[in-house]
Amino acid sequence: MFRPNNVNVEFKNEDYETIYAKAVTLVNSTRKAKGLFFIDPYGYKAIKPDDIRRMLTGNNTEVLLWLPASFMYRFANTVTHSDFRGGEPLREFIFTLFGNNPPLFKSIYDFIERITESFRIFLKDLDIFVDSFTIERGGGNIYCLFFFTSHIKGYEIMLETKWGMDENRGKGFTLNKAPSFSEIQLSGYPQKLRDFIVSENSRTNSELYKFGLVNGFLPKHTNEILKGWKSDGIIEILSLDGQPAKGFYIQYNHERRVAIKIIKNTL
Predict the structure, then answer these.
(1) Is 198 among the domain residues?
(2) Per DSSP, what are the bridge partners of residue 51?
(3) For residue 189, which of 207, 172, 169 has the smallest C-alpha distance?
């Protein structure tokens, strides 16, 4: 394996609880460097949401968490209503994220979406971006990779990777070829985008950039929708920096400042 001279590789054989504590201490002692935690557990019983929070505290790390979502979903609704033997770790995981009144999970995909959104709420005070990517191996076995970062550009790159693997939905990968999907698979994003703009009369390009990413869509998706609206006379572009506004300028740290306003109610 190629290893640059400035890289040190160490292998250890220790329990998760032990190596986790050492890794967090190491990252917290090296503030000039970034940390990446990749957690691929055998099962899920040792994984706790509070562990993820400790890894991300300080905005100096990113986390990739691999979980057997289908196995967790299989018992998720049961453990929240009964105390059966062996269900304590999953019950603690769910109650930590949802409180004492967790929802009824309607499907494996509903379970993943709700876990993702609950992680966003759980880590909101740390300004952490959270998303997930599913991998279906057949036989109903669905695994999920959750990723956490405090850097919006890093979050955008992760979303680009998702859409690169699933160009129709940006949701996940299956070993069997997925069928073609139409634009309706945008999950109501055009309406969400419209409501977001209308809620404050207008929205800046930087606000629209972040809004799209948080909802799982890339700047090109937002631009495509706005371009159609502009052609239909639904929106107008307002310059906020005194320069002519010829585009939407929806990208990371763009120097231009413009606002988008809805001027026609019918979409």
Answers:
(1) yes
(2) none
(3) 169
Please indicate, yes or no, whether residues 99 and 148 belong to a single structural domain of this protein: yes
Q: Under a CB-based contact definition with an 8 Å cutoff, are residues 67 and 38 in contact? A: no
Look at residue 3 and tell me if it is in a domain. no
CB-based contacts of 40, cutoff 8 Å, min separation 6: 66
Residue 128: give the domain boundaries.
16-174
Give Cβ neighbours of residue 218 (< 8 Å, ≥ 6 apart): 156, 159, 160, 163, 170, 212
| Separation CA 226–CA 175 (nearest Å) | 34
Same domain for 32 and 81? yes
Residue (of 46, 41, 16, 38) closest to 143 by Cα position: 41
Structure tokens at 58: 């300080």
Tell which of 143, 174, 205 closes a domain. Answer: 174
DSSP class per residue in 6-57: T---------HHHHHHHHHHHHHT-TTS-EEEEE--SSSTT--HHHHHHHHT
Q: Which residue has the higher pLDDT, 203 or 165?
A: 203
Helix (H) or strand (E) holding 66: strand 61-67
- State whether residue 189 is helix, strand or coil: helix
Q: What is the pLDDT of residues 88-134, one digit of tens each?
A: 999 999 999 999 889 999 999 899 999 999 999 999 999 999 999 88
**Virtual torsion, Cα 236, 238, 239, 243, nearest 10 deg:** 40
pTM of this structure? 0.81
Total count of domains within the chain = 2
> Cβ(218)–Cβ(156) under 8 Å?
yes
